[in-house]
Amino acid sequence: MNKPGLNSLKFKIPLFVLLSVIPAMLTAIGLTSYRAAKILHKEAEKDLASQAQALAMQVSQWDKMNTLALQNLSKNLSLINTNSTQLKSSLVILQNSYKDYLWSVGVANPEGNFIALSESNKIEPINYSDREWFQGAISGNSITREIIISRRSGEPAAIFSAPIREQNPLISSEQSFASSSGKIIGVIRLGILLNELAEAVGANKIGETGLAILVDHQGQLIAHPNSQLTSGEKLTDLSLYPPVKHLLNDHQGLFDFTDDQGVRWLSYSIHLDNKWGAIVLKKQSEVFMQVREFWQLAITIAIFSTVGIGILMALLAHRLIKPISDLTEAVAQVSQGKWHRKVEVRGQDELAILARTFNSMAKALKESFSRLTEMNEDLQASEMRKREKAIALEQSLQKLQQAQSQLIQTEKMSSLGQMVAGVAHEINNPVNFIHGNLVYLRRYTQDLLELIELYQQSGTQPPIEIIQKIEDIELDFIQEDIDKLLKSMNEGSSRIREIVQSLRIFSRLDESELKPVDLKTGIDSTLMLLQYRLKGQPGYPDIEVITIYENLPLVECYP
């Protein structure tokens, strides 16, 4: 057999794959796209982080400014030592100096009652000792923050409070405040509008879908670009919102989540020093839009390149696959029994060798199939004869089993009839005896009762023993109940006689010949035997059988 040489498909196919450079091209595009996508992904995350850090820095500076102002105010002993009129004037001057964001300045005594308020001449007798801002300050915290809904604006406002300490004359006021050793003699409270924070949050334009929010240490909303979410009677609770929940669990940084509408978001959270949280979030579809566009471009290039190479491969494969198609068609025809089909042999490659082998195989299969056909015909004839014998044997066996079953059933019914007739006969005699004697028993009992009644009416006084016995046996009750008792016994014996008669009719032991039979009698006796099955059971009502017989003729049958 000649070697295929350069005409071998083993040489042609690797040569074609190497020339097409599809693997190398796709690998290069994939690696380049992957590295570029990672770079774009990191840049998008850095941009989100820088915006969150800028917001956090702005909020921290705002908080630090208010903290320093409050600490300086709390060192001023004149807040407590002056009278309420002078103190209110000082507070009003302070509020007017910062009226753009300071809506209230107040001083409370250690019991939690305001002694002066900048916005009100008349102080309501309200105790604020249960408020968070007061409890934090009175317990010694240098600064306490609480977010509330301002009654004046209906929007969130911040309450900053600090303790006012009694100054030690031996140390300066700055040292006294820093050491926190002085006695707390009051609390100063600033009510600060959050306009600046709201503007800072709203000014963070983060693409088309991004936004920034600010929450307190409990997850309550402080600032949001949508003012409707920060207005109302109480603060909006976002503690269960995924990025806020993530932040409250002492986690910060990048966090991706899916909201209730199935939209995926990427957020960046930062813990502030005042325990607030700054969160910047944007839809992932926008965050990674450049990455997606780059991947789409890379996929488009790969598709067009693959299509171009595919067209080239199809043109070349047409010439290579033609012999294989001819061989496949020949195999299909041979499988259908067309043994004469042969494949044209062209060239000296593997396909030519395969074609020659196929032609030899087809010839051998034709000869083998002819021998198998003859053997199969003989086998089918033999199997047919065996199957006919088996069917005849099975039919005979079924008839025998049916005859045996009928014989057994006949014997069972005969034995049952004999037993039922014997039982009915044995029961019938004593029942007739009882039923017949009940008449005399009723007569004798009635005579005895009448005798007792006559004796009682005679007026003769019986002995004490007889009187006592009458009371013990309850003679009056016996006189009333004995008639019912005899009636019940008579009904019971009649019932037994009817059942015995039904059993005798049912068994028909002494009537085995063909004769006219009244169907009504047979039906009534059967219903009598089934009477107990018709009575109601727990969960099932009584079954009432209504029999309406017409003038039925006698039927010739075996009873």
Summarize the structure.
The protein has 559 residues and is α+β, with helices and mostly antiparallel strands. It contains 15 helices and twelve strands.
Question: Characteristics of this structure?
Answer:
559 residues, alpha+beta, five-stranded antiparallel β-sheet, 15 helices, 59% helix, flat, disordered N terminus
What low-confidence regions span 5 or more consecutive residues with pLDDT below 50?
1-5
Strand ordering within the main sheet? 2-1-5-4-3
The H-and-E topology, N to C, reads as HHHHEEHEEHEHEEHEEEHHHHHEHHE
The proportion of residues in beta strands is 5-15%
Q: Would you tell me the overall average pLDDT?
A: 77
Largest sheet: 5 strands, antiparallel
Looking at the structure, what is the overall shape? flat
Quote the distance from N terminus to C terminus.
97 Å
Number of helices: 15
Beta strand count: 12
- Radius of gyration, in Å, reads 56 Å
Coarse structural class: alpha+beta
